Every structure is written in structure tokens, then in C-alpha cells.
Amino acid sequence: MLTNHTAMNIKSVTLKLIIIVLFIFISSCGSSSDFTDNKADVNAIKKADTDFCMYAVKEGFFNAFLRYADNGIIKFSDGRFPVIGKKALSESFKGKPGPKNLIWSPEYGEVARSGELGYTWGNWTMKTEDTTYYGNYFTVWKKQNDGSWKVKLDGGNSTPPVQD
């Protein structure tokens, strides 16, 4: 039986998901003029994405996520409800550094003409002793007051191996 608090949390998460889907849909309907031609902005979010990965390999995926997360982050994970907020993200990691064998690279990125939001997507691999896992991801980046970029929305999925 759901408590009123649990039901409200589910409704809140559902509403946020609807808003995100609408944002993505509306964004995809716009013309390419909705995105900047400024290569410096695009390179900045791709660099932030690459730096995020390098930090994850060195310090652990969970530690990197907490370093690069916006306070209002929404993190999607397969088979789970989204984690909303940096505090909830930290609690979900339970103080563990996370794996250091997850590597990703942005394939493409765009920044909104306003310069406030951008996104990257790319492929990831995770190697264990006997298996290599593959997938792709998307990350929405939010520009901070200090000019840095933080992860606002993130998700991904497993895929078959990438064919060259």
C-alpha cells in the first residue's frame, strides 16, 4: 500500500519525466538555428565530458559523478527510478568511489544558442577480467555561474559491440 508521501513522490517523478520528455521533443522540433555555431561552446562541453571520464578513471565513477553533477541533477539508470538531486545521488552511491574501468567519449554535442544548456552523446565501454560491455549515453550539461559545465541530466543503455 502506498503512503501519501510515496504517492506524491511518484507523481513528482512522473511530472518531471513528462517535462523532460516534452523538453526533448520540443527541442528536436526546432530548427538548427536553436543551437549555436560557436565551436568554442561545443568544444567546452565536449572537454567537460572528456574531463569527467578521465576523472572517473582516476578517482572512480561515483566520485566523478558527484564532482561534475549540478545540484539539480537527474540520473537515469536501467531498471530503476531516476535519482533526482545531488544529495540523493550521493546517498545512492553509499560512499563508494565506483568503478574505474568505465570509459566513454563524446561523439557529438550541441549548445543552445542561449549558451545555458548543451548536450553530448557518445559510446562507453566497461572492461572486466573476462568481458567487455558496450553502450551509449547522453548527458545534458548546464552552464554554471562560474562558466563551468555541470551534468544536469544523464542516462545511457547497453548496446551490442560497436562495429567499425
How is this structure best summarized?
This protein is an alpha+beta fold. The protein is built from four helices and six strands, in the order αααββαββββ.
List the helices and strands and how they pair.
Blueprint: H1 4-29, H2 39-59, H3 61-68, E1 69-75, E2 83-84, H4 86-93, E3 102-111, E4 117-127, E5 132-143, E6 149-159
Parallel strand pairs: 1-6
Antiparallel strand pairs: 1-2, 3-4, 4-5, 5-6
Protein described:
By secondary structure, the chain is an alpha+beta fold. It has a single domain (36-159), classed as Nuclear Transport Factor 2, Chain: A. The protein contains four helices and six strands. It has helices spanning 4-29, 39-59, 61-68, 86-93; strands at residues 69-75, 83-84, 102-111, 117-127, 132-143, 149-159. A hairpin with a 5-residue loop joins strand 5 (132-143) and strand 6. Helix 2 runs antiparallel to helix 3 (61-68).
Low-confidence runs: 4-8
Q: Widest sheet: strand order?
A: 2-1-6-5-4-3
Task: Give the count of helical stretches.
Answer: 4
What is the strand content? Answer: 25-35%
CATH architecture: Roll
How many E-type strands?
6
Order of helices and strands: HHHEEHEEEE
Measure the end-to-end span.
Answer: 50 Å
Q: Could you report the average pLDDT, rounded to the nearest whole number? A: 85
The proportion of residues forming helix, as a percent range, comes to 25-40%
CATH class: Alpha Beta
Which of globular, elongated, flat, extended, rod-shaped describes the shape?
Answer: globular
CATH topology tier name: Nuclear Transport Factor 2, Chain: A
Strand count, sense and closure of the main sheet? 6 strands, mixed
